[in-house]
Design brief:
The chain is mainly alpha-helical. The protein has 13 helices and no strands. The longest helix is centred in the C-terminal third of the chain and has 33 residues.
């Protein structure tokens, strides 16, 4: 099991001091990014004044629409529901057998919320509230009873992207509410966390620890592969944005995990879920620094997948692609 993690000597040393400084620095940088780029109330008031979308802006329908017009939202709903059921089954099995569920639980929550968003969007799509409203408006105009839109509706319509289909062009798109923003944040946190967890598992744990009391089983392989497959598939299907500043939530998520593990091990001497978290090793600060730098690599890989999807679909299906156009007009740090 290694060193006794409940003793004071395990924590009161230079190794823990350096690692704690690294984790604290990561949390400070993440907090600064969130304060500068997120700020929901400040962001909305600024957008009304400048009539521009900020880096983290989100429309409600972006959480449930697909990347192409030809792909009905029901397909994304079915995909998310299947992913949630599969991940929940693996999560339940892992809780019973092992108990290591931190990142996997977050991905399962994401697909649970995604299924809810898709059900909501599917109802909106089937009811055709926007299209029917415009049709009624057109018939009223022919009868001489047209009602002019309010200034706020004109403002929202003027800031509407031009690459969306008839549904978006014919109705005033709703700015996302708080729980839709939470869904977007969880999506981007999951993207980085899943990439990091799976890379650490397959590149570090399996090659270096296999055969030293570390044995692979079917459940372990599934939990470190199926989650990435489902998440990348959802990333390709959906039309959500991927602003880079939200790496801050990914950093805070990892910092919370590390601090949680420190607290648990300070109270109970037990095995570490990842051996490089063990502070008894003289190389612990180097391991913490290396994994910290991997956060940037993993998040860049996710951003690259998103950009490649945009590049391919926007050029192969220019009339059908419903994702955001990455033009010069888009906010910096997108």
């Amino acid at each position: 099991m290694g060193a006794n993690t409940t003793s004071l000597s395990y924590w009161l040393n230079w190794r823990f001091f350096l690692c704690a400084i690294g984790v604290l620095s990561m949390m400070i940088v993440a907090s600064i990014l969130i304060w500068k780029y997120e700020g929901f109330k400040k962001k909305r008031s600024r957008r009304r004044e400048n009539k521009k979308e900020t880096a983290g802006f989100l429309y409600e329908d972006e959480t449930w629409r697909t990347c192409l017009k030809e792909i009905h939202p029901a397909w994304l709903l079915a995909y998310r529901l299947i992913a949630f059921l599969a991940l929940f089954s693996l999560l339940f099995a892992n809780i019973v057998i092992d108990g290591e569920t931190w990142t996997f639980a977050l991905v399962t929550i994401y697909f649970a919320l995604g299924t809810s968003c898709s059900i909501y969007g599917y109802c909106q799509y089937c009811n055709k509230a926007g299209i029917d409203g415009v049709d009624d408006m057109g018939s009223d105009a022919e009868k001489g009873s047209y009602v002019a839109p309010t200034p706020r509706e004109i403002e929202n319509t003027s800031s509407m992207p031009k690459n969306f289909g008839t549904y978006e062009q014919s109705c005033v798109r709703k700015t996302a509410r708080m729980w839709f923003y939470a869904f977007q944040i969880i999506f981007q946190t999951c993207a980085g966390a899943v990439m990091l967890t799976d890379l650490v598992f397959w590149i570090i744990l399996v090659p270096f620890l296999f055969g030293e009391g570390f044995k692979l089983n079917f459940l372990m392989v599934c939990m470190h592969s199926v989650n990435a497959v489902f998440l990348v598939g959802d990333m390709i299907l959906n039309c959500m944005r991927f602003p880079l500043f939200r790496i801050a939530y990914f950093l805070l998520w990892t910092a919370a995990f590390v601090i949680f593990q420190w607290i648990i091990h300070a109270c109970v001497s037990m095995w570490w879920p990842y051996p490089f978290l063990d502070l008894s090793s003289p190389y612990a600060p180097a391991w913490y620094l290396g994994v910290g730098l991997m956060h940037i690599l993993c998040y860049c890989i996710c951003a690259l997948i998103f950009r490649m999807k945009h590049f391919f679909l926007s050029r192969s299906f220019p009339e059908s692609y419903q994702g955001m156009r990455l033009l010069k007009k888009q906010p910096s740090f997108y």
